[in-house]
Design a protein that fits this description.
Spermidine Synthase, Chain: A, domain 2, 12 strands, homodimer, seven-stranded mixed sheet, Rossmann fold, five-stranded antiparallel sheet, about 25% helix, alpha/beta
Chain lengths: ~280, ~280
Amino acid sequence: MTLNGDWVTEISEQHGAAYSLQLGQKVHSETTPFQTIEIYETKTFGNLMLIDGFMMVSTRENFLYHEMMSHPALFTHPNPKNVLVIGGGDCGTLKEVLRHSSVTSALQVEIDERVTRVAEIYFPELCESNNDPRASFYFGDGIAWVKEAPAESLDIIIVDSTDPIGPAEGLFSAPFYRDCFKALRPDGILVQQSESPLYHLDLIKSMHGEMRKADFSKTKTLHFPQMIYPSGWWSATMASKSVELTAFRSEDAKQKPFATRYYNAGIHQGALALPEFMKGL
Amino acid sequence: MTLNGDWVTEISEQHGAAYSLQLGQKVHSETTPFQTIEIYETKTFGNLMLIDGFMMVSTRENFLYHEMMSHPALFTHPNPKNVLVIGGGDCGTLKEVLRHSSVTSALQVEIDERVTRVAEIYFPELCESNNDPRASFYFGDGIAWVKEAPAESLDIIIVDSTDPIGPAEGLFSAPFYRDCFKALRPDGILVQQSESPLYHLDLIKSMHGEMRKADFSKTKTLHFPQMIYPSGWWSATMASKSVELTAFRSEDAKQKPFATRYYNAGIHQGALALPEFMKGL
């Protein structure tokens, strides 16, 4: 079959695979000092944000990613109060973080303010907690922010970034992880999106190594479906100074006072179970 | 981006989404009385079988599907001896079934013998157990075969079919499930591929209903990644006459004497944990 009409296609060059969504109207396009942001309506995925042509977030399936980037870490930490989100300009991760009543402050450090301003218009449901008094925003370089962060001032750092190429590359190596380590309290947890288990196993392995180099004593990858990202299967990797990452507050997760669409205690446990081919991470 | 050069694209028309693989040579093409079978070399997915233009199986990722269609059911049954595979012409499910030493007979009933003959050439690793003395093959209609099957003669029936349109449609409703029920022993289990959790929730719900109508007392869906199928996320649904489907022989699964690439006891448990939006099945 061939793609007639208007489709956007993201090619995973190295893997000879591609994913396409059928488009309606292009409703927004701008080039910021950092990147080109486009918003399209799609046939069944709601609105779609592209950055430099890569699929970032759609209305229909972002719940998988945002829930899995936040709730596993927050239900693993014994009592998360102060949370930092690096990247995450669409505000979906921030929204999930703020569902936890223990959280007293959540700061989003996104390099490109325009991503957030555009998300407020086209993904209002992801931005519905932006006026929460516990939320704050800083638009600037996350790597620099963490380097200057007060020592032991944070409980959770969530790195919700683009792929490890270009500006995000520095987010995937030991010097950045050392700064995160310093900024986290003794029971602090770092969690970072870590690409596709099928396509990027070498990167995931490297991340575990770099996190250990930065003195994190425990690391653990979890996996989940994510249709608009390459291979349709995605992962997040957690690093901890001291807290066990294979256990979590499962009773709290079972009785969570907020609704989710993917995450629950069983899904959390299941996401921690690695396929045979990933054993040895 | 646009797909320059040779790609095969499978469009999920209703969902406005498509998945493409970059092709090398077309190495086989034939039209049988049932369908058109094509085999292509791909850039990184090994060989790819298309049936009537739909992606059926690739060398790189079939392990996900074949392991999850077989091992959960076989490790749930207390002592599976006699197994029937309906469809499954590529023989990958049969191969996984035969890894279980308790199995004394495994019959594959595939309507199109050419699928199996072509798989023997282009997917030899999936056919490596075809000469196992416990394996047998019948090329004909699976629905008719089950209707005539001796009562209580089987422990497991695996329905490894194409989508519920055309010839496979009859495999998704109560009359067929009643015949399966009759052919299964009192601790028998039926397992069937049940499409995408994201795209086909209505079908999955309908399958549970039809299975219950056919007197199966327990039904359970499990989910797993599957990049070449629509949405990249797939499911199998089990039905049982009496055996609990949420418990399984986890110690046996932990100590399985054969290698897998995806399946293990943790993955099994995790696959049974349904996302919030699937609760109520």
